[in-house]
Amino acid sequence: MPLIPLQIPKGQYRNGTDYMSQGRWRDINLVRWHEDALRPIGGWRQRGSVDLNGVVRSMIAWEENDGTRQIAAGTYNSLYAINANGTATDITPTGLTAGRVDATINSAFGGGFYGNEEYGIPRSDTETIQTATTWSLENWGEYLLAMSDEDGKLYEWQLDTATDAALISGAPTSCTGMMVTEERFVVCFGAGGDPRKIQWSDQEDNTTWTAAATNQAGDINIQTNGKILAGLRTRGQSLILTDQDAHSMTYQGPPFVYGFERVGTSCGLIAAKAAASVDNGVFWMGRRGFFVYSGGRVQDLPCEVADYVFSDMNNDQRSKVSCTVNSAWNEIWWFYPSENSTECDRYVAYDYAENIWMTGTMDRTAGVDRGVFRFPMFIASDGTLYEHEIGYNYGSDTPYAETGPIAIGTGDSIMNVVELIPDEKTQGDVNAKFKTRYYPNAEEREYGPFTMSNPTSVRFQGRQVRMRIEGVEDADWRVGIMRLDARQGGRR
Fold this sequence. Notes:
Layout: E1 3-6, E2 25-29, E3 31-34, E4 37-40, E5 44-46, E6 58-63, E7 69-74, E8 79-83, E9 88-90, E10 104-106, E11 128-130, E12 135-140, E13 143-148, E14 155-157, E15 166-167, E16 177-180, E17 186-189, E18 197-200, E19 218-221, E20 228-234, E21 237-242, E22 245-253, E23 257-265, E24 275-278, E25 281-285, E26 290-293, E27 298-301, H1 306-311, E28 322-326, E29 331-337, E30 344-351, E31 356-361, E32 366-368, E33 377-379, E34 385-388, E35 400-403, E36 406-407, E37 413-421, E38 430-437, E39 445-451, E40 456-462, E41 464-471, E42 482-491
Antiparallel strand pairs: 1-42, 2-35, 3-4, 5-34, 6-7, 7-8, 8-9, 10-11, 12-13, 13-14, 14-15, 16-17, 17-18, 18-19, 20-21, 21-22, 22-23, 24-25, 25-26, 26-27, 28-29, 29-30, 30-31, 32-33, 33-34, 35-41, 36-41, 37-40, 37-42, 38-39, 38-41
């Protein structure tokens, strides 16, 4: 009896039709690959009892000079400081202009031009979109800098929990975002309400914004068809991302201070918080794909799950897409709202060391990488703060991975499978199911679940099979190359 190895490449493939993913992992949740073995991601546990007003869209973690650790979190109308014990303090600036929990789109009556369409056909792209409110959060030494894209003003919090964040004198207003460069300039985007204008303060002085011979403050309007959404520090420069293209921002010193160069076109950012910077470069999600900038120029990032992700996204709420880094596993995570949800309930993750993609379901709206804290922290839409990559508890969810169809018969022959030879770290940590068909569009039959032993007795037949691996509760399992003990049957 021949043994048929189920030698499935690592990573997920979910583009195109079901049969296009033959011999690959197609449907997965809460799993990753490490050293060629399939394994569960780390679990999570609640950290403190954080009571926040509204959905958190932005987070940052940093240390004070005395080692005290802080997290800042921004909602549509509030700003919070959260200490290491999980206690939240409202530090919302006085007079802050409240924003929006959800993106609003005027595509109903009055949202277009009268008589411009025929009754019963989809409306053309004429509606006005107002995005969900996000924050730009940076540390300025041990202090916090914060800006809501709806309010547009720059604030500083100087660590006193009895005092709210305060407006910075002289800073531009009506901005859409800000960043701090490696050279210690504060940079505002969309300054003065101009979506293409970049304005920066004097070096090491966030209160001096008017250019003079005695300082390095300045401004420029970059040449772009879009509007600036974000800026990120990367090796030797900063990267400015618009909803259309990308521009490098390189320090040159006086008199021009900064030089700008367009480094990518047709690579616009999907949302203000949809990009992250790591040692390997800047990674971000666009409207229909992913991109990376690692110096020189922007490149398309081939994605083996893009078809699934972008066809499953609620595009009306795409401004909520949030990106965070999980550096312990060399991963970039994007949280996004699925087609039938108004809040982020799914994720797509990219392992930039192994060049593999993963998807799954998870209610998270923002997060910070480990470093300041021992574990990465993500926050749910209800304001619950979780430590991640700790233990193997997933609430009511179960890690699993299911393949696309795998051909086990040849020609017209049918294979009868009688045993499974498992390849796992500890037998009993996973269960297996098998789904068989005689033809690609024929009725599918399911067998199992089977509890693993060596060998595992199974009974099924078909020309193609898909395998589903499910982890048991609170187990750190590994799965390698499974083998099926099969014999040729008849024809059908």
